[in-house]
Amino acid sequence: MITVYIRYILDPTKLPEFEQYGRQWLPLVAKYGGQHHGYFLPGEGANNVALALFTFESLAAYEDYRLRSQQDPACQAAFRYADDTRCILSYERSFFRPVFPAAVPASWGEQ
After folding, report:
1. For residues 74 and 49, what is the distance between their CA atoms, to the nearest angstrom?
2. The NIPSNAP domain covers which part of the protein (predicted)?
């Protein structure tokens, strides 16, 4: 399993446009086998940083999604929307593998 982390630097005057961009991608990631965990818009603190997290079963599955999304008209429209609105100034992408808890001993639940 691989989780993709994207950190966006945004034009802070175009947060509504970025939110619309994110809403376009939520179903598109699922269309190609990923699980989107959402976009996270600025709240407190920096007003120009947003995050996205989504998971694929493997790096190979993610790479397949990347190739197929380049040919998908809805994905192309989402890319164009970001370009046209200039809501994204830059972004960086990182890949993580999750660590899940081991089975918790029954005695840990006792108080």
Report:
1. 25
2. 6-99
Scored b (16 or more CB within 10 A) or e, 26-35 reads: eebbeebebe
Residue appearing with tokens 């001993």: 105
pLDDT, tens digit (0-9, with 9 covering 90-100), for 44-82: 888 999 999 999 999 999 999 999 999 999 999 999 999
Range of the domain at 26: 2-90
The CATH number for 20's domain is 3.30.70.100
What total of structural domains would you count in the chain? Answer: 1
Beta bridge partners of 52: 6, 39
- Centre a 10 Å sphere on the Cβ of residue 17 and count the other Cβ atoms it contains: 18
